[in-house]
Amino acid sequence: MTSTGATASESTDTDVRAGTSKQSQASDRVQGILERDAVIGALQALIDAAQAGRGGSIFLAGEAGIGKTTLLALAQEMAAGHLVTAWARGQSMEQSIAFSLMHQCLADLERSLGRGFRTVDSLTAGEALSGATYFRVFDALREISADRPLLLLFDDLHLADAESLSLVSFLVRRTPGTSIAIMAASVLWPPAAVDMALSLANEGLSRTETLRPLSPEGVETVLERYLGPHVDRTLVSQTWAATGGNPMLLHEVGSQLRSGRGLARVGRSAGELGQNLLL
Question: Distance (Å, rounded) from C-alpha 274 to C-alpha 264?
Fold first, then answer.
């Protein structure tokens, strides 16, 4: 890799400044996330554990729009300056491509590290049958984490290719005793990813958090952010019924109510958005 002329000290200082900025963003983001304190605490605990050489994993499960991606993004911000992070998202168009999700993750890790490593180019379906790929990826990650703890984030895990899903399971089983943390998010259907997460949790190898809809009190708080204090209780009840407490739908409704649209019309829009989320 071509040198940019920056010293190790300058690079570290830059990382620290960037980390401090992202941690400030994380603090601001936490203030805007409702009824997720226990989950946020679990994410922070895993970040702290990875730094102490006690790696592990956590899976977030729940319906579309419930806030899984928001929490993964928050975790990435909380880890800034402490862990090297890599992000990958499952893609429906790439489910038939072996190791597509993991290749995406390792490529992002290369960008975070500022250097490449051969493992990224060696992910092939043929090697999956021998298991060589699995061990090579784990060994590479463990070697990197010996110098800098790692956080691997997988969003939309339900859309992962089968080989990557198997590899994630393989890695989760081996993170204890390392400085590697894995966080992943999945909807409940199709069930392969959630079933894997629950199986790992039942073995005591991971933790699964199922995200619930916001309560009527949470709905009221969100509406107050859009409409001001003292929102009519009937409007709160109707909005809760229209959205089911789904944060994404709720913010859509709040935005449209603020623009002056009536609840009946907004409710139809929320219903259409909800249908699109489930497709």
Answer: 15
